[in-house]
Specification:
The protein has one helix and twelve strands, in the order ββββββββββββα. It is mainly beta. It folds into two domains: 102 residues, no CATH class; 71 residues, no CATH class.
Length: 190
């Protein structure tokens, strides 16, 4: 496996790299850890893992439904921008195009919402000094992630980052993820 995507209530919360391929492939068997994001809110959670090999071929786990903490009863118990229905916290599918105003990353099709305290937009990564690295009206602004690295933003404003407050995880979610990972490994061996 090259990497594993971890989905909670149909949203990709993480993308974990696996052991690198060597001249003779990967170690077999190898162990992988799937980490529960600390900001995953308490609610009923549909968990799914999707594993990709080095050629991009994917294997999807079955969806496992767990309850983290207690089922949500209102959106105030969920992460920023999420709704609460049937005890589940979830985001609507992303609809924000590059340059659209945003207040949380999951609104953006690019998955990236950045800006200042006063203005945040849906944006995308870019390389400094590359012509046409950003859509019209935006320029590549340094983001501090490394030399030559930036995000597309309006000319007059530097970049920042959106964030969501962290929460706590419980042992049962990790147990559920271990079951999903075990299912993926067993499924791949058949």
């Amino acid at each position: 496996m090259a990497h594993v995507e971890l989905y909670f209530n149909a949203y990709k919360w993480s993308d974990e790299p696996c052991t690198a391929f060597g001249t003779r492939g990967q170690l077999n068997p190898d162990s992988y850890a799937l980490h529960v994001p600390p900001d995953l809110p308490d609610s009923i959670v549909d968990v799914q893992a999707i594993a990709y090999d080095d050629l991009g071929v994917k294997t999807e786990s079955a969806i496992v439904t767990l309850t983290k903490g207690a089922a949500c009863t209102s959106a105030s118990a969920c992460a920023k921008g999420q709704k609460c229905e049937s005890g589940k916290c979830f985001w609507d599918p992303p609809s924000g195009e590059i340059g659209a105003s945003c207040s949380y990353a999951q609104f953006c099709k690019s998955g990236l919402c950045t800006g200042t305290k006063d203005e945040q937009i849906c944006t995308q990564p870019c390389s400094l000094g590359v012509a046409d690295a950003c859509p019209k009206g935006l320029t590549c602004q340094a983001n501090g992630a490394g030399p030559g690295s930036g995000v597309c933003f309006f000319d007059s404003v530097g970049g920042g980052c959106c964030s969501v407050e962290g929460g706590s995880t419980t042992w049962w979610v990790n147990l559920g993820l271990a079951a999903v990972a075990l299912g993926l490994v067993r499924r791949r061996r058949r």
